Amino acid sequence: MSFDLASSYLNALNDHYLPTTCLQAGVLGSIGDVLAQAIDRNETASSLDWQRACRTGTLGVVIGGIGDAMWLRYLEEPGLFEPIIRTFDRFGADHGVALDPDVFLVVIKTTLDAFVWAPIANSLYLVLTPLSEGVDLTSVVDSLVENFLPVMQSEWSVFLPYNLLAFALFPPFIRPFTTGFVSMLFSTYLSWITHLEPRVQATAEGLNEGLGEQLGELLVPVAVGGTEGALPMADAQTLARADMARDARAVMAAIDRIDDDAKVVLAMDAIGAAMGVHDSAHSPFEEPSSVAVE
């Protein structure tokens, strides 16, 4: 008897809904993080952070496998939205507005998913991902404030059209898989953005604004550990960027010195040329054009 993967998957969803969605979310979340690392670092498989991929997969199990799956099941509860639909029908009849109940139901589910569950899930990812890696709470809050709105904008641009399509066309039992696949692609983005290092202002004096902006991309803050005043601990990537910043400052300083020397040389040449013209105009070998006669 041949193995039917699709039927086995559907049977697993029907008989073991949460274990299946958890396994699915964990695998897809880990794959998404590996893709994010490959995009961000352009590294080989041997140099990838597999512990980070496992942590992301674990978060996928909790947030996607349990939270998202239970949320999708909740949205399919029979009669859940009947009061809203009846109220809208009465309002529409009184004001001459008619809308197909099935279409209205799709709009309700999509709206609730976008503005109720999505902010919760994305906030959990943005908070739990850095916390699981030992980042201090203050930095986590700063990252949440900085990234929440861009993440939600990306969420709405991806999942609003997807959910309109999924709630209208996909059967409920197949949505965990399609949603999981789209979530894997989105988790790649989430994993990438939660591991971005925040930019800081360049502090070197004498740097022009353009160089300051370039150094702002290179310099990154590092977490201070131990007692107050202890030296910061930085990974190899942070140290490399700091070295690049120092090199950039040295190059700019050298360029400024070269420019100053060039200006001095030009000034000396101009002075020499002016003195040469002056000497030729008053040469002792030149006969006077007229002699005064008393």
Task: Describe this protein's structure.
The protein has 294 residues and is mainly α. It is 73% helix and 0% strand. Mean pLDDT is 75; it is low at 199-212, 217-234 and 283-294. The protein has helices at residues 5-15, 17-41, 50-75, 82-95, 101-131, 137-169, 175-194, 209-218, 236-281. The chain is elongated.
List keywords for this structure.
mainly alpha, 294 residues, 2 domains, single chain, 73% helix
What is the N-to-C order of secondary-structure elements (H for helix, E for strand)? HHHHHHHHH
Helix content bin? over 70%
Overall number of structural domains? 2
Radius of gyration: 34 Å
Q: What portion of residues belong to β-strands? A: under 5%
Tally of strands: 0
Put simply, the count of helices is 9
Protein structure class: mainly alpha
Major sheet description = none
Shape: elongated
Give the overall pLDDT as a whole number: 75
Regarding quaternary structure, what we see is single chain
> Unreliable segments (pLDDT under 50, ≥5 consecutive)?
199-212, 217-234, 283-294
Distance between the termini: 137 Å
List the helices and strands and how they pair.
Layout: H1 5-15, H2 17-41, H3 50-75, H4 82-95, H5 101-131, H6 137-169, H7 175-194, H8 209-218, H9 236-281
Helix pairs in contact: 1-2, 2-3, 2-7, 3-5, 3-7, 5-6, 6-7
Concise summary:
The protein has helices spanning 5-15, 17-41, 50-75, 82-95, 101-131, 137-169, 175-194, 209-218, 236-281. The chain has 294 residues and is mainly alpha-helical.
